[in-house]
Design brief:
This protein has 93 residues and is of the alpha+beta class. The protein has 3 helices and 4 strands.
Length: 93
């Protein structure tokens, strides 16, 4: 990887939230989205998206705490910022 990888333009929590719900809106009601898809869509660069992942997970955790989103690992609801493997973002029921 090059040292000249562009740093993503800072995004706001509102932009992350809009992207999460925009991507979910393009899928079936029972479908989910991976946080990395959100980060990739916001970064616009294949190398820069990883730097956005902590922010996407933080916003997802806040949305889940408000009941606006569900974050799952397998069938279990989890904190989006917890360790333990990949998570999926889902519409709240």
């Amino acid at each position: 990887m090059s040292a000249d990888v562009p740093v993503p333009v800072p995004v706001t929590d509102e932009e992350i939230e809009r992207m999460v719900f925009g991507l979910l809106g393009q899928r079936d009601a029972d479908s989910s989205v991976c946080p990395s898809v959100v980060a990739r869509a916001l970064a616009g660069d294949e190398h820069a998206w990883r730097k956005l992942m902590p922010e996407v997970r933080r916003v997802a955790a806040a949305l889940a705490a408000k009941g606006a989103l569900r974050v799952t690992r397998g069938a279990e609801e989890v904190d989006a910022t917890s360790r333990g493997g990949p998570v999926r973002l889902r519409r709240a029921k």
